[in-house]
Structure formats: C-alpha cells, structure tokens
Amino acid sequence: MAEIIRMPKMSDTMEEGVIAAWLKKVGDEVKPGDILAEVETDKATMELESYEEGVLLHIGVEEKDAVPVNGVIAIIGEKGENIDNLLKEANSGDAPAKSESKSDKEDVKEEKPEKAAEPKESAKTESIDTSGINANLITMPKMSDTMTEGVIASWLKKVGDEIKAGDIIAEVETDKATMELESYDDGILLHIGVEAGEAVEIDGVIAVIGEKGADYETLIKAHQSKGGSTEEAQSEVKKEEKAPEKAEEKKEEKPAPKESSSASSTTDGGRVKASPLAKKLASDKGVDISLVKGSGEGGRIVKRDIESFDPASVKAPAAKASEGSTSVPALGQESFKEEKVSQMRKVIAKRLAESKFNAPHFYLTMEINMDKAIEARKSMNEIAPVKISFNDMVIKAAAAALRQHPKVNSSWLGDKIRYNDHIHIGMAVAVEEGLLVPVIRFADNKSLSQISNEAKSLGGKAKNKELQPKDWEGNTFTISNLGMFGIDEFTAIINPPDACIMAVGGIKETVIVKDGQMVIGNLMKVTLSCDHRVVDGAVGSAFLQTFKNLLEDPVRILI
Predict the structure, then answer these.
(1) Which of 86, 104, 150, 262 is the most buried (most CB within 10 A)?
(2) DSSP label at residue 400
C-alpha cells in the first residue's frame, strides 16, 4: 500500500525545508535507509532518509522549492499502484490551512478585542526571549503512527561530548521497534533530560545541544511554558538549579562500566548495540551479532567489526556465567520483583482494552477435519521450494474465504463501514515483550510457497525487532495461532481496525463418527471473534463454513 512521505521537522526552529536535490527519481526502487533527497533547513543541509520500501511513484516538490513541515514531498508504493485517491487526500489535507489563512485575514477585526483580553500568563510566556541562546532542544519525535511516547533505551553520548549533525545520540524504544535518534545539530551535549529506561511523551525535551555555557535552562523553560503554565516551567528549572552537582556526579559515574570488554556491546536489557548497517551485514553473513565485540563509541558494533569477525575465535562463556546466577528464594520467604512496563506492552494494553470494551465481541467456534490437509501438506512439501506449515495453509484458506465474503474483510469507522477490496492478513507473532502483528499483503494472490517465505521472514524480523512501519500497517483481517503450543481452543481480542480475528487451535487426533462408524480423525478448532457493529452472526458463520470447506478439501485453495 502506498505511503505519503512528508517533510519532517529536522530542527526545533524549523518551519519549512527546501529540497536542495533529489537523489531518486520517479520509478526508482527505494529501500529503507536509502537517501531520497537533500533538504536545506534553517540550520544545515540534511539527508532525507526513507523508512519505506517500494517504488517512488510521485514527487510533489521540485528542486529549490520550499515545503512546510508535514507537507507532502513524495509517495512510495508498489509499481503500477493507483495513487489518485492518496493525492486527493494529501491535497485536501493541505487545503484547510490555506482557507483558514484567508478567513483569518477577513476576521482580523473581530479577533483583536479578544487578544486584548488574554490572561497575563500568556503574556509571560511570550516574554521569554531565547533569541540570544546558541542552543537547540532535542525533543521526542513521533517515530510511528501509533506512538504517543518513547523510552530511552540507551544513551550513546554523554554530557560534554561534541556532537555533529548525523551522529546517533540515543536509541529509542517505541511501541513497535527500537530506533536510532539522530542529531540534526552541531555543538556540545549540554543537558540530558531523561535517564535511560525512562519514558518521554511526543515533543518532550530529551536533551539540549549548543555552545558551551549556553543558558539552556531558559530554553527549556520557554519550551515548557508553551505546553503548560509558566509556574510549572519555573518550578522545573528551579529543581535543576537546586541539585546540579548530584546530577553531574551520577552522569560522571556511568561511563566507567562501559569500558568492560565483553559486555560493552550489550545494553542492560540484553539488547545488542549495533548500527543498522552492521545488523544487516551480520544477517547477510549469518553471524550471531551478540558474539561480536564492538569497537565503536560506547562499545557499539559497526561495519568493520562484522567484516573482521572470526567465529572460530569466540568461545561460548554463557554456560559458566549462568551457573549459580539464578537465585532461589529461601524456604517460607515471600519475594517478588517488579519491572517497568515496556513501551510495546503499554500500547498492547491500551489498544486491546479499547477494542475489548468498545467493540461488542461475539464468538463463533467450528471444528475442521484436517485429514486431507495433512495429506496435502505432506505431498506439497515433497516438491515445494520451502517447507509449508499448517499456518500457511490457514492464511491462504482465510484469504480465499475473505474473497468470497467481503463483509468480513471490513472495518468500523464510527459513522461509516469500510469494506476492503484488498486482503492483507495480519499474523500475530509472540515476542519477548508482547505481541506484534506483521502483515502479509494481498495474501489471496500469493501461492502457498510465497506465503510461507513471507511468514518466516516477517516472523524472524518481529522477533529481532527489525520490522519497519510498512511491515505492520494495513491489516484487514488477523489470525492468531496457538496450536503449536498445544492449545486446543481459545478466543482472541479483535485487532483494530479489523472487524474480525480468527483464533486457531492445535490439530488433535480424536474419535469421530464417519458414515455411521467410529474412526480416528484429526480435528482443529477455530474461533472467529466478530465486531457485532459490522459483522452479524450469519455473515461470520458463512465465512467459517467456506473456510472449513477449503481446508477439508485443500485442492480448492490452489485454484
């Protein structure tokens, strides 16, 4: 599905950017990490990186033209994809700003009396002059569509370090993945406002970069007074003024343990610190990146470390280290441990609670005889280029059934219902921190081998936290399969914006009645959770009946 590329806010004072040069042209293939264009901001000329994969379908701005922050720059999607509706959407989104500016001019006379009656607090906020302060605030950017806050996973720079534009200063854990926070400014890291492991809301102050000795406290005060009262801003600055020495002592103590050799490339949470290029190179070479010693700043693994890594020279010390590390509580002694809720778990909790309590769920359960599916899978795997799983067959059968029952492939949008013509199957994947749902796009048009390949690739990316936004967005129907864990039957909570989710249990050998005789059969139970605002019982039942028929005679899903 095509995605709009908008002008990002590359500095705290940036209002618009000028496209200095396009490095890609319409029709070019684009991958995440590719540089699309060079953008001239009020501070410097920066590179505009793509986070999407596909073909550059549209360029909306000519070179040397200015674009306001959040303005449409380009569109990336699949080759030949129709983007007319997306262009209309983008243009209509920009239109209100222009019409508002006209109406503002016409209503100037009416607004003037109201401005005179503004409270004193707003006058105070406007009076904070920051023009002479040679420093810039680094605020928490919005790194995904559903992100409301980010957690600082680790700092790669410390107060006093010299920073250049393009340096990675921290790693940020969002609700989807761990991403790198890049600096767009040159200067000294004057202030770190958030400790590693703490959460920051979108646009919250993370750090300050500028000239040595710059009055960054006033800068923070001015920023906070925009969002809250001046009293709150003043109290925050006073807190900083009271205990600057303690904060400095803590920050000075931290760098010492980083010099240890074996653990320096790993964060406290066990996640490896490595550049995206190093991770990709390690994946291509089949190198276990956790065994590589980083030579970059703070023990970070970089490209040269992967290229020079010799697996034969590494011994596995994990077994000895783990011996005696598990602490067993004394007999009769109560104990517990508490952990901070991860960003991913927070978002899962919020979204599923909203789904469960806002969408009226009802459930339909059906038994499916998998005898023929077992035989068909065995036969297919004798010639298939990749091993086909039962989950691949479930995805393919669900996609085929959705094509026949489009009302199930839908979403509730409040004042309207969206019936999707395309079929994108979300595949629930359990990861250490919770649950991710990568999406297999146009699943009805793909062969079982293609689905199998894609499912394995996305599952691996999910577990390694390497998914990109395009990998988890756009689902129209979701499947959650716990059969591999020995679960016979369960119900699942609908994954918004879908109208339905299907919970798949394991295949169980049991006694069934066939032609009046008791025989051994292989049964699988599936439960369809439906949003009753969109899907009625008869519609959901008809879908399940088609799904059952396809799996009980798998030749049909190949047609």
Answers:
(1) 150
(2) H
Burial of 247 (0-12, 13-18, 19+ CB in 10 A): middle
Give the pTM: 0.51
> What type of residue sits at position 154?
S
| Distance in angstroms (rounded) separating the CA atoms of residues 556 and 546 | 11
pLDDT tens figures, 182-238: 888 889 999 998 888 888 888 888 899 988 888 888 888 887 776 644 334 334 444
Neighbouring C-alpha atoms within 13 Å toward the C-beta of 519: 10
Q: Mutual orientation of helices 390-404 and 448-463 as an angle, nearest 10°?
A: 110
Cβ-contact 459, 440 below 8 angstroms: no
Give, rounded to a whole angstrom, the gap between the first and last alpha carbons of the chain: 25
Give the span between the Cα atoms of 512 and 177, in whole angstroms: 46
What are 1-21's pLDDT values in tens digits?
788 888 887 765 577 888 988
- Check 42, 288, 536, 553 and give the catalytic one: 536
- Running DSSP on this structure, what letter comes out for residue 7? -
Which range of 44-48, 123-127, 524-528 scores highest in mean pLDDT? It is 524-528
3-state secondary structure of 471: helix
- Annotated active-site residue in 161, 361, 488, 532: 532
CA dihedral 41, 43, 45, 47 (to 10 degrees): -80
Secondary structure tally for the chain: helices H, strands E? 15, 26
Q: Within a 13 Å sphere around the CA of 8, how many CA atoms are in the beta-carbon half?
A: 20
Q: Which helix (H) or strand (E) holds 167?
A: none
> Which tokens belong to 108?
């100037």
Phi, psi (deg, nearest 5) at residue 27? 100, -15
To the query of whether residue 65 is one of the catalytic residues in this protein, the response is no
Looking at residue 386, its pLDDT comes to: 92
Token pair listed for 22:
């396009």
Decide: helix, strand or coil at residue 382.
coil
Neighbours of 297 (CB within 10 A): 14
Q: In the 8-state DSSP scheme, what is residue 351?
A: H
* Secondary structure element (H or E) that encloses residue 170, with its range: strand 168-173
Answer whether 135's CB lies under 8 Å from 210's CB.
yes
- What secondary structure does DSSP assign to 99-131, as a single string? HHHHHHHHTHHHHHHHHHT--HHHHHHHT---T
Residue 435 and residue 501: Cα distance in Å, rounded?
Answer: 14
Annotated active-site residue 536? The verdict is yes
Q: Quick one: which of 179, 174, 225, 178 has its CA closest to 201?
A: 174
Residues 6+ apart with CB under 8 A from 184: 10, 11, 41, 43, 44, 46, 165
Nearest Cα residue to 154 out of 305, 279, 273 = 273
